[in-house]
Structures are given as C-alpha cells and as structure tokens.
From TrEMBL:
A GO CC annotation given for this chain: cytosol
Intracellular or extracellular location(s): Cytoplasm
Species this protein is from: Donghicola eburneus
UniProt GO MF annotations: triose-phosphate isomerase activity
EC class name: isomerase
Family: Belongs to the triosephosphate isomerase family.
Subunit field text: Homodimer.
Catalytic reactions on record: L-erythrulose 1-phosphate = D-erythrulose 4-phosphate; D-glyceraldehyde 3-phosphate = dihydroxyacetone phosphate
Catalytic residues of the enzyme: 93 (electrophile), 163 (proton acceptor)
Enzyme Commission code: 5.3.1.1
Protein name: Triosephosphate isomerase
Domain of life: Bacteria
Length: 249
C-alpha cells in the first residue's frame, strides 16, 4: 500500500510573511494519515523546518546541485538542503528543464545526490502541448523517466510527479482518462525496470492546476498517489482542502 503524498511547491513565491500560511497548515495537521510536504524557496527552508517541527508537514527544496560542494555560485547542494532541515527535494521540474536547460542525465545525477544526502527525490516529468498534439506523450514520458531515474531509485527514496507542462498554472487539466493513461504507463515502465516490489512501491503524483474543486476526482484516478501542487499550495486553506480530499480518497 503506497502512502499518499500531498506536496506543495511554492516556486519563487514567499518571503518571511508566507510562514504564516505554513503555521496555519502545521496547526491544522499536527498529525495526518497522508504525507504532507511543502517546498518553499530556499531562503525559507530553515525557518520553515523550524516552524513545521512536531507537525505532519515535511519541508523540501525545489532543486539541488549534483555535486556535494564546490565552485558553483548560486547553487545549493542536497547536503545543504538536508542541513537546513529538508527531507525532500524536487528534481527536474519542467521550469528547471525549460528555464535552465536541465537534461534528464543531469536530473539523474541530481537524484543520486539527493539519495546520498538522505533526501527523497521528487522527480518530475511531463510533456509540452505540441508533444501531446503529435501523439507522442507516452514515448516522451517513457524516455524522460528512463533517463531521469538512477538505477538505484527505490520506493523509499523516489517519488515521480507527472506534470503536463501545458497544465501548469493554466487552469487547464488533462481528462481523467489522460491522467490515468500516463500514470498507468509510468507504473508499467517502473515495474518493467525495477521489478514488482520497487515498481509498485514508487509513488506517482499528478501536478498541473490541481485545486480544491478538482482534487477529489484526480485522487480517484488510477495510479494517482497524490499531487504536486503549485498555486493552490500558497494558501493554507486551499492546500488543506486538497489534503483533506487526499485523506478521503
Ligand atoms: O510544481 C507544481 C506544478 O508545477 C503545478 O503548478 P500549478 O498547481 O500552479 O499548476
């Protein structure tokens, strides 16, 4: 039985004031039957970790460097995230792939760095609209996960987030059939590569315009073990409604 996960990605949003939303969330979930994760900007990770201590909310980073230390101005290592109190890190978000030219090979190296630091890697994949319109979604997702996951990936260290790029921040979502098709495909690919135990153990999140209004139906979809939420994770009330939908699923 896979433990469900509601993950919030604050992206480049939030200064110290935003911790009030986190405080509201932690007060609402001193404990929970699902895993809850907030990935604030790097500048807030240590304060967020302190604020979330003793609650059901875990804290994660939004990216890490593949190396442990070195001359990489502006970058943050997985060890540094761990040191600041993070337990997870998002790797290979489409905004990193598109804005920073990150390749799947680099993403696999970052995932290994996350494992070595004791972090759970939330590895993202997803197609652009043109790829979907060309009928190449599954081929694209298959290549991305094959290349972005290290051979050492396992169910304790790895979560996959399927995020169609065209659904991120747009209010558009795939049909439930389209979500199920991709999630079932990813599950089958994982089982093929890693075997039944690991392949069936790795959690699969859906991301892209998840809101309180559509969360329940998405969580009832085949092989959806939770969500990676952007905009609707910024307000505790909205994210709480999504968490509650996951608990009820
Ligand atoms: O990481 C989160 C995703 O990119 C989804 O963002 P969104 O919920 O604002 O569409």
């Amino acid at each position: 039985m896979r433990q469900k996960l509601a993950a919030g990605n604050w992206k480049m949003n939030g200064t110290a004031d935003a911790l009030s939303e986190l405080n509201e969330l932690t007060q609402g979930y001193p404990e929970a039957s699902v895993d809850i994760l907030i990935c604030p900007p790097a500048t807030l990770i240590d304060r967020a970790s302190e604020a979330a201590a003793g609650s059901a909310v875990a804290i994660g980073g939004q990216d890490c460097h593949a190396n442990v230390t070195g001359a990489h101005t502006g970058d943050i290592s997985a060890e540094m995230l761990r040191d600041a109190g993070a337990n997870y890190v998002i790797i290979g978000h489409s905004e990193r792939r598109d804005d920073h030219g990150e390749t799947s090979e680099l993403i696999a190296a970052k995932a290994t760095a996350a494992y070595n630091a004791g972090l759970i890697a939330v590895v993202c994949c997803g197609e652009h609209l043109s790829t979907r319109e060309d009928g190449k979604t599954l081929e694209h997702i298959g290549t991305q996960i094959a290349e972005s996951l290290p051979d050492t990936a396992n169910a304790d260290t790895t979560v996959i987030a399927y995020e169609p790029v065209w659904a991120i921040g747009t209010g558009l979502t795939p049909t439930l059939e389209q979500i199920a098709e991709v999630h079932d495909f990813i599950r089958a690919e994982l089982v093929k590569r890693f075997g039944e135990k690991i392949g069936n153990g790795i959690r699969l999140l859906y991301g892209g315009s998840v809101k309180p209004a559509n969360a329940a139906e998405i969580f009832a979809t085949s092989n959806v073990d939770g969500a990676l939420v952007g905009g609707a994770s910024l307000k505790a009330a909205d994210f709480s409604a999504i968490i509650d939908a996951l608990v009820a699923a």
